[in-house]
């Protein structure tokens, strides 16, 4: 048996992807331990979901910017994740751009779930972008995080058809249902070694 993944989870919102991971863990499907659930938003629902499961939580101080954390706040977050024993950071709905403090604390060890078939539709509200573009299918992607926005190497993707009559809500809902299978499945494969962690220089 490979050594369990030591996970840090970082999210800004509802936390439905975190819940899907926690449920798969509870069913014994992922060889991992969640060391810390962190949020940049003090009252984020993801923290409630973590507390319900008796998991340690951390929330960042309020900063001046909306799209990124101030370097000092991000450094403190990185330290909290490291001190908790996290070795692999999962971005589960983290709504800010990741900067040097976290990228340098977890080189090659950060993954993200994004609601489109990257490289199509990076950035915000990818399901609305897909609807506006008139494409017939979209999906979700789990990828390694680098300094680009939604541009790091793809790990795995799942397709979601766009149906006649779809609106942003219905499409987003269907993509999320797919995310809730894809993210736990990637973590399960990383945890049992069938998907290798990238080599780090
Ligand atoms: C997901 O759709 C994910 O793809 C995107 O943010 C959303 C987070 O949803 N990065 P939740 O907080 O996991 O419910």
Quick overview of this protein structure:
The protein is built from 6 helices and 7 strands. With 201 residues, the chain is of the alpha/beta class. It has one domain (5-192): 3-Layer(aba) Sandwich (Rossmann fold), CATH 3.40.50.
Give short descriptive properties of this protein.
201 residues; alpha/beta; Rossmann fold; seven-stranded mixed beta sheet; 6 helices; 35% helix; binds 5-O-phosphono-beta-D-ribofuranosylamine
N-to-C SSE string, H for helix and E for strand: EHEHEHEHEHEEH
Q: Ligands in the structure? A: 5-O-phosphono-beta-D-ribofuranosylamine
Content-based structural category: alpha/beta
Number of helical regions: 6
CATH superfamily heading? Formyl transferase, N-terminal domain
Reported by name, the CATH topology is Rossmann fold
CATH architecture: 3-Layer(aba) Sandwich
Roughly what is the average pLDDT, rounded to an integer? 96
Ranges where pLDDT stays below 50 over 5 or more residues in a row are none
**CATH class annotation:** Alpha Beta
Distance between the termini: 25 Å
| Widest beta sheet: strand line-up | 3-2-1-4-5-6-7
Q: Give the tally of β-strands.
A: 7
Rg result: 16 Å
Helical proportion, percent range: 25-40%
Largest sheet, in brief, is: 7 strands, mixed
- Domain module tally: 1
Shape: globular
């Amino acid at each position: 048996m490979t050594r369990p993944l030591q996970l840090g989870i970082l999210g800004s919102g509802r936390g439905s992807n975190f819940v899907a991971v926690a449920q798969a863990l509870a069913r014994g499907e992922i060889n991992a331990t969640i060391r810390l659930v962190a949020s940049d938003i003090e009252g984020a629902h993801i923290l409630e979901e973590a507390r319900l499961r008796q998991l340690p939580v951390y929330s960042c101080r309020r900063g001046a910017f909306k799209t990124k954390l101030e370097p000092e706040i991000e450094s403190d977050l990185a330290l909290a994740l490291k001190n908790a024993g996290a070795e692999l950071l999962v971005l589960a709905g983290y709504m800010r751009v990741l900067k040097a403090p976290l990228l340098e604390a977890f080189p090659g060890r950060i993954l993200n779930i994004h609601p489109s078939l990257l490289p199509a539709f990076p950035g915000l509200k990818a399901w609305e972008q897909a609807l506006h573009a008139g494409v017939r299918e979209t999906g979700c992607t789990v990828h390694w995080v680098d300094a680009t926005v939604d541009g790091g190497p793809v790990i795995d993707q799942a397709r979601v058809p766009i149906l006649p009559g779809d609106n942003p809500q219905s499409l987003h809902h269907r993509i999320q249902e797919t995310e809730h299978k894809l993210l736990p499945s990637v973590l399960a494969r990383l945890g049992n070694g069938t998907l290798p962690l990238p080599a780090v220089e």
